[in-house]
Amino acid sequence: MKVNGTDYRSIWDRDGQVEIIDQRWLPHDFRTVAIDSLDEFAVAIRDMWVRGAPLIGVTAAYGIARQMSRDPSDGALQDAYETLDATRPTAINLRWALDRARADLMPLAPGERAEAALALARRLADEDVECNRLIGVHGLKLIREIAAKKPEGEPVRLLTHCNAGWLATVDWGTATSPMFHAKDAGIPIHVWVDETRPRNQGGLTAWELGAHGVPHTYITDNAGGHLMQEGMVDLVITGTDRTTSQGDVCNKIGTYLKALAAKDNGVPFYVGLPSSTIDWTVRDGLKEIPIEDRGGREVTHIQGTLDDGSIGWVRVTPEGTEGGNPAFDVTPARLVTGLITEHGICEASTEGLASMFPERAA
User: pTM of this prediction?
Assistant: First the structure.
């Protein structure tokens, strides 16, 4: 996607250096930074310089590649695997990418590993871009169907939660990809963007949509249900950090409440996901997915642009009050209308996922 007229991915390599968009500063300031050491890759993932399940996976693959360029031994490969795997527990793409890297590299002679690891990281990045593009192509069909039933010129009104945009992937995004495709196809849309406390990642979605010329409104997390009751939401699309083999969806905290409101008001609730986000080893999301518990300061403080133009943190709670911060929740498959994958749209069920990915389901 474009930033100030220049094409960017969220991660790239150039002249032996890996660079990322440092998302800690968005949407207030656009900064890029090079990351090189294994510790820097671990910090970038753990402290959310990069975020979003697909991007985390690709970043880990690049971390393996940089480590192999220094020390391609078996011990260094295993150490890099364990260090990066320990950074974030919920998003399955992290383990998926690390498993692919280890499986590809272990059979090779040490002298062959650095080149092979870099090639794999680049391939995973390209695969992610294409998967997300196709999610947009398939999701566009849903928007077209709704648009066809509306009076001419009236926008399709979508609601999304957290940021499942191109910043959370390598490009296009998952939930936002159908929105970008609809805009490019000339279909009028309007997006309700949840703020998504505590890190206000809806601000990233608003930044992306604004850059692409998509009409949108930034709303509080608690406004979505009211908008659905008033008939002002035609479709909900979110992303996911891990989807179980039966279609349960684990996404940013608050997603479950949106799904409940959508179910109660007859609003279709769809989830965009690349197949790398499906955990085929897990069935019951409530019982089996580990939920990351992040630091309380993310709840008690908020980052923003201050009156003097600087970027800073402000405490919003009484001094001494602790913040509880479960980062994700699980939306049971029964509340999900459908899953938008790179292979097409399916029911959120074991059978639905098997119809899209028979070789993986087997």
Answer: 0.94
